[in-house]
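Phosphoribosylamine--glycine ligase
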Amino acid sequence: MRVLIIGRGGREAAMAQKIVHDDIVNQVFVAPGNAGMHSYATRVAIDETAVDDLAEFAKEQKIELTIVGPEASLAAGVVDAFSAAGLLIWGPSKAAAQIESSKSFAKELMQKYDIPTAAYAVFHEATAAIAYIKQQSLPIVIKADGLAAGKGVVIAQSYNEAEQILNDWLGDNKLGSSGSRVVIEEFLSGEEFSFMTFVYRDKVYPIPLSQDHKRAYDGDLGPNTGGMGAYAPVPQISEALRHQALLTIMEATASAMIQEGVPFTGFLYGGIIATIDGPKVIEFNARFGDPEAEVILPLLASPLIPILLDILEDRKPVIKWRDQFALGVVLASEGYPQKPITGTMIKNLELLDNVDIFSAGVAEVDNQLVSDGGRIIVVTALAESLVEAQRKVYYELNKLSKDGFFYRHDIGNKALTK
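Structure:
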């Protein structure tokens, strides 16, 4: 069997490594992949949004299953192109992917079908949005309606900050078309968690909960990023709350998508917060989370490909999880997320032991890996306890040269201090 993974980051590295370790496929291709993948996957020089070229490659190479990693590919309609060509692909259609690519679509869906979420309003124009903000309490959440690579959400602590963001996005077009419309939401308090699921229309198979760390620096300080680390499962979220979120959010959303005529297939990701009124949706993603994938997939004891094939063919899959904890930390370039410094050699990577290393923003120069983006690698450890997984990761990270890089030192602390 030949498998194609679309994407280039740590999530795609985690999927490729999992499939290779499962040892039931002949070859794994990654398009476009990154320089850290060459030892276990075949890179393909096709951009993840070049949907026609990707479909043509899959036909030529007789790819039997394609898995979509990034949201940009889904928003570009890669699933539609593959389906039209008779190619088997895991991921939602462009219309269904609006659950992530359009914040207003997601909010309207939740409002229509009574799926719990924050109160909100949608604006196209800065003056009206600023007038609305001044009538709300602080802090307040401002979201770009479209995809913004993890940088389209601001929690404004003051009216001046909120006004500046709205003028930047709606007035000065600093996020381009992604920020030409904004969703303004009430701020919700509580414990946040990521609830990912395998979905095929009305069939929803839960994945262990995880918790991402979005802020750049220790103590949840600094700007929002694409994610600085994660762990799974999340012991401070009770089984009762998880079950409530499964029924009232994840399963209810899958059902709502069918009723709207845009049935969902793929990884449906609920960013959820446990409020005093129960679980509520912060956001939806239409794909596997990153860096959540880098802690979830090491916990998956069953082979991944049979799970996806069974679900796509409407058979009940066998899904078994290791009774362990996984914790992963992102090594990021200095300057990330605003202006990451690239081209820095990643020294001592070969010294890391007894951990998984998932490459992301890397390139190869003179047979050495160098930084080529904001998030460089994710280092993940498995252990019988969360504290041991955390200890293992940071022990290994201390072996790396810190010149030109940084990472958070408190991934997992929220669970350990409960």
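The first strand starts at residue 2 and ends at 7.
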